[in-house]
């Protein structure tokens, strides 16, 4: 395989001159430019990634950390990031939680992996890290943006959605459909975004006169299996609820599956709504009504902000994204009693 030295030798120029032609930085005469390009064509020279990094001063790679590589929540976000980066001539390197230790330790190891790979910037989507953990980025940290979480020390680099509004909208939708005896399937209490949506959901119900102390509620793990077991527990408890709110679409999908197997018709006997509006919701059976969170807008603006920081670009960046309700077949008005 030809090297930059071979190109310089064949063209009869210095290594620095050949490097300037390859990198596109610095001036060379038209005649010299022609000679070097002719040598590149003759040798079939293609600079390696390492060589490009040395020549340009950047790797053209963006590191992305997500907690898990599974389910229907993170995959669409990774697709959005990849699409944005490829359109800009860049690539992504993904790390995710794996190995020994808890979620925080896994996140720290993932960040260390991305830093060691020489990524020009980092996109973090995790809420287990703490303010002090940003020190893992080193004394001269790479540009970084955070999705779906906020750090006070880098607030301007954090992009999130309004989970309080999302929780309020879920409650208001059920109330407007006449539901007052509602089951709540919350996500892990350790996750701030779940806490925000669930608290706002309860507050909106309480403001409408619903006795929160009597609310049937369980905490699950954001998985379809968690939704399945929650629905099973509700049925076995004998509690009659006209609606169920699941704090993400994957749990809602699991609940729908259990209700179908148990012969409980949705939405005729119980309405079910989810949260996120992932592809799971659109193709569930019945199709799932859910809070539409603007993940695409959040992600695209976070990527744009990072590229501005990494490459001195001027891409437009906004921070206000609409939270709406997507109504589908899993929601009906409560039966009159």
Write a structural description.
With 337 residues, this protein is of the alpha/beta class. Helices cover 43% and strands 14% of the residues. It has twelve helices and eleven strands. The strands form two sheets. Strands 7-6-8-9-10-11 form a six-stranded mixed beta sheet, sandwiched between helices. Helix 10 links the parallel strand 8 and strand 9. Helix 7 runs parallel beside helix 8. The longest helix is centred in the last third of the chain and has 17 residues. The mean pLDDT is 90.
Topology:
Elements lengths: L3 H8 L3 H9 L6 H14 L5 H8 L4 E6 L7 H14 L3 E6 L6 H14 L4 E4 L19 E4 L10 E2 L3 H14 L5 E5 L5 H16 L8 E4 L4 H14 L5 E4 L2 H13 L9 E6 L2 H4 L6 E4 L2 H17 L12 E3 L11
Helix pairs in contact: 1-2, 1-3, 5-12, 7-8, 9-10
State the main characteristics.
single chain, 337 residues, alpha/beta, six-stranded mixed sheet, 11 strands, elongated
Percent strand: 5-15%
Order of helices and strands: HHHHEHEHEEEHEHEHEHEHEHE
Average pLDDT for all residues = 90
Most strands sheet: 6 strands, mixed
> Radius of gyration from the CA trace?
26 Å
Tally of separate helices: 12
Distance between the termini: 80 Å
Shape estimate: elongated
- Helical percentage: 40-55%
As residue ranges, the low-confidence spans are: none
| Major β-sheet strand ordering | 7-6-8-9-10-11
Secondary structure class reads alpha/beta
Query: What is the number of E strands?
Result: 11
